[in-house]
Write a structure and sequence with these properties.
Length: 108
């Protein structure tokens, strides 16, 4: 009788619940492995699509659609002229506030 009472206390104590937790945790780990596989497949797909974007020709890219080569060259030249104009303005503005020797760095 005492033996049965001790066995019952062991089964009803944390031992049985711990076994249930271990069984449950292994099933969760198995589900996570599948989730990792999906995540790896998703990353692989993203990388593949990026590689395909790199392989596109210049006229197939989003910013160039519907433009001929001459139109693209003209647009790019205008952008470069604008950048150069802004750089000269910035240099002139900073040149006025700095000393006059800033342009003569290479001279000895």
């Amino acid at each position: 009788m005492i033996l049965r009472r001790v066995q019952w206390q062991v089964l009803t104590s944390g031992f049985a619940s711990r076994i249930r937790q271990l069984c449950y945790s292994t099933s969760i780990a198995e589900e996570q492995r599948g989730g990792n596989q999906r995540e790896l497949a998703r990353l692989k797909n993203i990388k593949k699509s990026q590689e395909q974007q790199k392989k596109k020709g210049a006229n197939e890219k989003d910013g160039n659609k519907g433009m001929s080569l001459e139109e693209r060259r003209h647009r790019d030249a205008e952008q470069m002229r604008e950048k150069q104009r802004l750089a000269k303005e910035k240099e002139a503005a900073s040149g006025n506030s700095n000393n006059a020797d800033s342009g003569n760095k290479n001279k000895k």
